[in-house]
């Protein structure tokens, strides 16, 4: 069977660190409150000159170097993001130009925090069908640019960064076993950015009303996220005839430590089988899984033959999962 196999991982986060103590100085919050409710101790944020493509280009170079793949060999570049440099052209095209990947088709996918899983699924379809041979997939976000630092319910959660994987299509048992995607637009108002698009274009009024910042109903999202993530994980395991005990490492979207712990508990997974780095980076949306995957890979947490489970939940609402035999 032809599968899509990850042969390189990479990540990049800005140097600037924003700690809980820093946030205490600009909004009504404190370190204990943030850590207890989210598990986050600090996050990385960009400087004014750093766009989403800046992060993505650096992550891509790291992944390509590990894979031993030249940019000219790439057939496609797919970027999951909700914070592109601009509406158009896509971050994918900006990355393509910077890398010199002249023969690669390039485009973005907007699926909130599920953007990397959605992009991975599209890449898997290209590769497993034989249409393409080598694909670069990225999740990149610059959430600090759409974060309202007067809203203590959201500003403590979000960070910036980018993660990347290089995939090749080959015959064998290793690679992506399956991907499973879902969405429900009826919950669109639980997590969204109202201003900036054609519905609410930029005006003095929209800016004064802070409509260009991310808005979120965290309490309602938490309940839906836990149930949806559990369902899609069980769907993935059933599809591949895999038992929960066979999972070697769960690499979840790093949205909230309590959500991660709730999913792990429902799957009867011990702490050592769950990769967590939310305390360092916060919620980096579509970048969180590939950043975590790269850290797990480079630190030796993943070994050949391991069964990985990736899952994410985000704006849309969207959610999804992927099973990967390393």
CATH secondary-structure class of the largest domain = Alpha Beta
- Return the average pLDDT rounded to an integer: 97
Radius of gyration: 19 Å
**Percent of residues in beta strands:** 15-25%
CATH level 3 topology of the largest domain: Peroxisomal Thiolase, Chain A, domain 1
Biggest sheet architecture? 5 strands, mixed
Count of DSSP-assigned helices: 11
CATH evolutionary superfamily of the largest domain: Thiolase/Chalcone synthase
Silhouette: globular
Helical coverage, percent range: 25-40%
CATH architecture of the largest domain: 3-Layer(aba) Sandwich
Question: What is the rounded distance between the termini?
Answer: 15 Å
